[in-house]
Amino acid sequence: MSSLPQYCECSLGECRTDLLPLLYEMSQIATESGDLSSIISILLRLMKRHMKVVRGMVTLYDRDSGSIVLHESFGLSREEAGKGVYLLGEGIIGRVVETGQSIVVPCIRDEPAFLNRTGSRDCASDDANLSFICVPILRGRQVMGTISAERLYDNAELLKLDVEVLSILATTTAQAVELYLVENVENVALEAENRRLRSALGERFKPANIIGNSKPMLEVYQLIERVVRTRTTVLILGESGVGKELVAGAIHYNSPAAKGPFVKFNCASLPESVIESELFGHEKGSFTGAISLRKGRFEEAAGGTIFLDEVGEMSLTTQAKLLRVLQERSFERVGGNTTIHVDLRVIAATNRNLVEMVADGTFREDLYYRLNVFPITIPPLRERGSDIITLADHFVSRFSREMGIEVKRISTPALNMLQSYQWPGNVRELENVIERAMLLSENGVIHGYHLPPSLQAPVVGDSEAPPDGLEARLGAIEYELIVEALKLHHGNMTEAATHLGLTRRVLGLRMGKYNLNYKDYR
Q1: Strands 142-151 vs 55-62: parallel, antiparallel or unpaired
Q2: Where is the Sigma-54 factor interaction domain (predicted)?
Q3: How far apart are CA 400 and CA 515, in angstroms?
Q4: d(Cα 519, Cα 517) in Å, to the nearest integer?
Q5: What is the DSSP letter of 305?
């Protein structure tokens, strides 16, 4: 019994007695049915709920193919999990399978052998401070796979305890894993190959100029991949600021016409009297000021792509001439009678509802159908989930280079504000917000109080104060400073209070005001 871990380690700040019923349930299923799916389901639930694991993974080792495949996990997206294929001896997981020995990495940042194969860890964030534990699933002397976990530790004894707990879980799982591999060894290899191919496919067709891996954006990437091979007319729809021009650029630069010109024209930027000349060109002397022949945008785009932004702002007269170009790929310059033929792709974009405009008679129905051959709708930023943080980090890196201002991270409260905001101005608004915050930032951190008032959320406990009032703003700053201190000192109230220049009692009162619990930051 002395070799078993002491589950109740209250002196370390965590108690593990809650995991005993789940351990018993696992052992019962393993003994009676050997159902690996049920066992792993309990295993991952136990790791997530009772061991404060941020990411958990179970890999299986296929001896015939020599591959180690990520079988089940939590804390990873489908795309990230699809990349979880290792070879014997490769990285931490590969070494555990090769040696049959557990490996503990106290801090991922300091371990050069850590591959980050799935791409789920952000080395510039708190992920770099996580610990990584990987234990083998052994059946006799044969390694069947691994169980690995990531979480934040500030106590070596607690780290050692969790290694022992994971080893017990691996032993409980071993028989079911062996049975599964015997019955499904061929399927495991095929599934690993399918995951690898799906992941490679996703990476291949993700445009380099667009940031984001949310599900709505992955669907957009699939549409881009389908249309780039042809010269089909594309209509890009979406709110202002979502990045319609970036999508148009991705279509052009990934198409066979990528070496040709990519000409952009904003249909709302010029008065109606000038647009026709800009698009189709004019002959010398065709009107006052036409002192020489001038080629229009369609001629300039020959052999490539023309992007017509804000096409819904065109007058009915210009719409009629555009319709002919789409139908016949030909036109005459203003004041000329020579027909000019062009070979190009037309991409149009608008934030207007063209169907309603057709019904109102302000947009030609025949032109709408000519443009709407292959529509792509870009989702607004508020529907893109985690892309908000990805984009924010991208803008921080970009502005750091451009401005010469070193900003290492965005604080947790500030991230919460960014994710809670509705972003009516979409990506363009986020870019402006980050640029402003960079100028106001201090000590390499963007805090919540560096963000515009429109993003300042009411603080818990101050519901009676107006959201834009002085008390609410001061409360937001106080809340963020407390959260940052607790996070920095891993929930240690004494150290956090010292950091803030408060007594432990006063800090406790302030935390109660905002419903904060130090255990959440351990």
Answers
A1: antiparallel
A2: 210-439
A3: 35
A4: 5
A5: E
Q: How far is CA 94 from CA 79, 167, 175, in A?
A: 21, 17, 21
Three-state SS across 411-465?
CHHHHHHHHHCCCCCHHHHHHHHHHHHHHHCECCEECHHHCCHHHCCCCCCCCCC
Neighbouring C-beta atoms of residue 254, cutoff 10 Å:
17
Between strands 409-410 and 374-377, the pairing is unpaired
* Tokens, residue 35: 């159902």
Q: Are 349 and 311 in contact (CB under 8 A)?
A: yes
Confidence of residue 241 (pLDDT cuts 50, 70, 90): very high
pLDDT in tens, 69-109: 888 888 888 778 877 888 888 888 989 999 999 998 888 77
Enumerate helices (H) and strands (E) in the chain, giving the number of each. 18, 17
Distance CA 76, CA 74 (A): 5
Are the C-beta atoms of 36 and 133 separated by less than 8 Å? Answer: no
Rounded to 10 degrees, the C-alpha dihedral 117/120/126/130 comes to -50
Average pLDDT, the chain: 82
Return d(Cα 227, Cα 254) in angstroms, integer.
10
- In terms of pLDDT, which residue wins out, 146 or 16? 146
Tokens of 78: 């489908």
Check if the beta carbon of residue 13 is closer than 8 Å to that of residue 519: yes
Considering the entire predicted model, what is its pTM? Answer: 0.55
- CA–CA separation, 196 and 232 (whole Å): 31
Decide if 170 contacts 134 (C-beta within 8 A). no
Q: How confident is the model at residue 443 (pLDDT cuts 50, 70, 90)?
A: confident
